[in-house]
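We modelled the chain as a single entity of 177 amino acids. Its sequence is:
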Amino acid sequence: MLQPPSFFMNIDKAGHEKRLTAGLKLFVQEFSRIKDTLEALHFIYGNGSHWWLCTLSFASEEFQIRDGLTLSPPPFRDSFEFVFKKFLDIDLKSWKIVRSECPQQNDSNNCGIIALGAMEQLCSRGIVEIWSQKNSSKFRMMWLRRMVEKHIHATKVLAEIERASLYERSQVWCNFN
């Protein structure tokens, strides 16, 4: 299960406010439907200057951290323990925090690409090329191309919706989702 970049911020906010926040309601609903078959939950954590890939492994009961610089992520455990216990009835207190294998960068600007590549590697069961310093430019272009293509697709869909009648808009929206 993949989560958007805002996922950690929403978990952290709910943990500090001790309540289910609007940003987590959809996650709690979706997670509740699939939790019995879920192996792992992946999310990118960024603090403004560095990115980590974090995985909650339900199979091994671990918080797995992947990081191209082997820096320690900011504290996150308390917020996760609160949210998962309070809203999902899952106790994470005994889970270990482990550092999982990850390609290492020798600069200060590839952490995001490494985190995205590691997530893709995990989700594809290892059938994609692994990031290395040697192919870092190739990976940057690949992710840029993906973002541009997604933006172009979304722009086309929005343009179709704007041109359509109300009935047609509902049909376009249904086909897009």
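As a brief sanity check on the tokenised model: The helical segments are 6-17, 22-34, 77-88, 111-123, 136-163, 166-176. DSSP finds six helices and four strands in the chain.
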